Amino acid sequence: MNKKKIVLAEDNSTLSLLLKFRLEKEGYELHMAEDGKKAIELIEQEHPELILTDIMMPFVSGLEVISHVRNTLDLKTPIIVFSAAGQEEMVLKAFNLGANDFMGKPFSPNELVIRVKRLLA
Amino acid sequence: MIDFQYIFEYFNGAPLIIQIIWMVSCVLFVTAVVLIIYLKVFRSHLRKNEKIVKTFQKKYEELLITYLYAGVEDEEISSEQQSIINKLKSEIKNEFKREIVITTLLKLRNEISGEMADAIQELYCQVGLLDYSLIKLRSSSWYIIAMGIRELTQFNIEKANKQVVKYANHSKSEVRKEVQLYLINLFHFKGLDFLDDLKVSLSEWDQIQLLEVLQRSKDQEICNIIPWLKSENDSVVIFALKLAEIYNLFETKEVLLELISHKSENVRINLMRVLNHLSIFEAKEGIKRNFNKRNKEEQIAFFQLLENLYDTNDEDFILKQIYNKNFEIKFEALKILKLFHNEQFNNLKLTPPESEFVKIAKFLQNN
User: Fold this and answer.
1) B26 in a domain, yes or no?
2) pLDDT band at residue A99 using 50, 70 and 90 as cut-offs
């Protein structure tokens, strides 16, 4: 059975590693990007079933990643954004650009798994 | 050899000013070369260091993630977790590595919640990092103490409360700030008890930080602020006034009324804002009685209060103040008059007592 692909764009390497471990345990194939630029490359290359992206990232932000997926690539791939406290406006912008769900940091990895499963069901 | 002799002869034969310029140029050239070499060595040292840090960070990240997923349901700590703890215990004996371990733990601790965040906190204690943080509190350098307290805050170590609170009156504001943040982040409103014994001033910036943390806190059950409103420390009184305003503490009304005659001008000015916010009408008469004895800033603040809490009993007072020598008071008085007694305001316009009066009236009429 083919594993469902997920692209994770997150500049915090420890958090990325933790989520990779957790989501791979659930049977997903994880592709990690440490900035928005690499995330766009991975999305174009891997055509994932789900995208997880942080909002604040070096070079290309999470908002630009969403905009690229929805407007340039014209993909309907579900997107979950991670945001820190005080980034409410950014979250609204992310939803306006086409994000499907968001999680405020700090978040529980177990809750993320539930949301991922719901979107990929 | 001939070239050197030629240069030497040219130098000796040159005028003094040329000789000085040559010497200065040589010194500057040598300095520039030394600086370039130093920067190059320094930069390569930093890059090397960065590489080492990254290598260790990667190693500790993997250990941490393995630790978090190595738990066995029926055991508190599995054998795999114990071996990671032992490994980290020996690593953190080195200060350089210890700092990297702390950074790695915090990098994850700040981003996740729930059981895993608790497990990271547990690991911090298990490997002995807590002991190192507590040792920092005994240091003679203020910045090491501040760092130690910050670590205890970041890892939510509540049991260090007694050791931390001892520094609430430390001579360095940086240490005091860390103590305050520790108490508020971990104990929320209960953490404000340090105000009871605060001997030093609580700066405006400290107050803003504390209020911000308190507002973010899930526990919004505010404690009794009356002792702080009666504090000998003026900055504590001002902070308590801010709490009364933000959390609408009407039950403090009696104490607020007593503060009208507080010795500190700053307290009285802040009090006006709170009285206005809580709509405490009873305060007006007391202030009006000795209005002229109060300073200008306080008088203006009182007029801002009157604008919101005006009633017909204030009419005579307002009419008196439209002839006040201070422009701002005169302006505020006319503004209130226009708002509540427009007819009287229009009559006054027809019989202007002075040119400035007409100007203000015209401005108010048009705005």
Assistant:
1) yes
2) very high
Query: Hey, what's the torsion of the CAs at B58, B62, B64, B70, to 10 degrees?
Result: 180
Could you give the count of Cα atoms lying within 13 Å of A57 in the half-sphere of its Cβ?
A: 29
Residue B63 lies in a domain: yes
Q: Is the pLDDT of residue B3 over 80?
A: no
Q: Is residue B55 part of a domain?
A: yes
| A-interface mutation test, from B64, B65, B107, most A Cβ less than 10 A away | B65
Whether chain B has a CB inside 8 Å of the CB on A27: the answer is no
The answer to whether A14 contacts B65, with C-beta atoms less than 8 Å apart, is yes
How far, in Å, CA of A48 to CA of B112, rounded?
24
CB contact under 8 A, A106 and B57: no
Assigned superfamily of A4-120: Response regulator (3.40.50.2300)
Residue B83: its pLDDT value, please? 93
* CA distance linking residue A24 with residue B288, whole number of Å: 73
Among B157-171, B327-341, B347-361, the minimum mean pLDDT is found in: B347-361
Collect all residues of chain B within an 8 Å Cβ-Cβ radius of residue A15.
107-108, 111-112
Helix, coil or strand: residue B148: helix
In a domain, residue B3? The reply is yes
- Residue B320 pLDDT greater than 90, yes or no: no
Q: What is the pTM of this model?
A: 0.79
The predicted pLDDT at position B355 comes to 59
Sign of CA dihedral B287, B292, B297, B299: positive
pLDDT tens digits, B20-50: 999 999 999 999 999 999 999 999 999 999 9
Tokens of B160: 């260090």
How many separate domains does chain B show?
Answer: 1
ipTM for the complex shown? 0.89
- Where in chain A are the domains? 4-120
Q: Is B108 in Cβ contact with A18 (below 8 Å)?
A: yes
CB B197 within 8 A of CB B169: yes
Cβ neighbours of A105 in B, within 8 Å: 110-112
SS3 content of chain A, % helix, strand, coil (to 5): 45, 20, 30
The β-bridge partners of A52 are A8, A80
Using the Cβ of A106 and the Cβ atoms of chain B, whether some distance falls under 8 Å is answered with: yes
